[in-house]
């Protein structure tokens, strides 16, 4: 039994918390867990917006029953087919055999492929309307945010948007579901980590979606993960955060990500960081790629404008953790960064050569000099590392004044 949880008059929260999984998508660490949010609109007709991960289906259906009792669900609105939200669909269809499933032409293919569901599927197009009685739903297709079928559902009378993954965050809802019942700031870093790693590749599609949303008045944002945003100030903040992140805009600050087997390359990172700090850069994050999860490094690369990467030479290549980080950066099409690099070797250098190639292909603004140490820092390479830290700081300071 659950006490029904109202978002507004006839909109209810029926989502669940996952404090068990270690990895979201079997990739991304969940130190603070994650919520799978689902919502019911109880009107003359009843609509369910998305479901939850199959592991939580039993809790989910108990919550649905607490809101509806014996009343059936008439429509399942599928904003997103990724199985963390579509997992309970088969069970839902078995429970409510007359349910109509609402999605778009990209949803249908996934419904068939994942769940062999082909009947009672209602296809909608961008901006189509569906009346539940007093509530009017309007659908906005938002492809590649972050799957091709993703869409959002707007309840006109409540000025409430069900946004799919957009504006969502890692982190469970510990008691409070609404932003007014929690401390929104505690979700900010996890929202950026979610965005940068999962949605980050699709900045231009996010911009298209934000433009669509600018046509409507929004008083509540109900995402599939994290808190429900109801306060005007918070809605402004999360929308502008998405706008900024999807433009690849970043604040003054520096990420130094390095691999280091025995600490020599790490010492170069320390020298660069100290000099950048001495020249006015307060937000500096050093990440040892062998310890920090890539999702944290990517999060900080989305936050800060400066990026310096260092690597030892390993089997005549980059250090493996650095190589995969470069791939993750390229995969997310990160733009508008000031980039420097350094590396080391013991008998034959290759890391700096590969970082140079990366800098030439990625399209970042390069800040030099690059630094290459043989075995350990010496007087000459120390000077170069100091110069790289100073030059990066000067560049970031100048950009901050310009912006
Ligand atoms: Fe929360 Fe893209 O699934």
Folded structure, characterized:
By secondary structure, the chain is α/β, with parallel strands linked by helices. It has two domains: about 5-245, Metallo-beta-lactamase, Chain A; about 250-400, 3-Layer(aba) Sandwich (Rossmann fold). Helix content is about 35%, strand content about 25%. It has twelve helices and 23 strands. It has helices at about 55-70, 85, 90-95, 105-115, 190-200, 205-215, 230-245, 265-280, 295-305, 320-330, 350-360, 380-400; strands at about 5-10, 10-15, 15-20, 25, 30, 35, 40, 45-50, 75, 100-105, 120-125, 130, 135-140, 150-155, 160, 220, 250-260, 285-290, 305-315, 315-320, 340-345, 365, 370-375. Strand 14 (about 150-155) and strand 15 form a beta hairpin. MU-OXO-diiron binds near residues 82, 146, 165, 224 and 225.
Summarize the helices and strands and which ones pair or pack:
Blueprint (H helix, E strand, L loop, with lengths): L4 E4 L2 E3 L2 E3 L4 E2 L3 E2 L4 E3 L2 E4 L3 E4 L7 H12 L6 E3 L5 H4 L2 H7 L4 E4 L1 H11 L5 E3 L5 E3 L4 E6 L9 E5 L4 E3 L25 H12 L3 H11 L6 E3 L9 H15 L4 E8 L5 H15 L5 E5 L5 H10 E11 L2 E2 L1 H12 L6 E8 L5 H12 L2 E2 L4 E4 L4 H24 L1
Parallel strand pairs: 8-9, 9-10, 10-11, 15-16, 17-18, 17-19, 19-21, 21-22, 21-23
Antiparallel strand pairs: 1-2, 2-7, 3-6, 4-5, 7-8, 12-13, 13-14, 14-15, 19-20
Helix pairs in contact: 5-9, 6-7, 8-12
Bound molecules: MU-OXO-diiron.
MU-OXO-diiron binds next to helix 2.
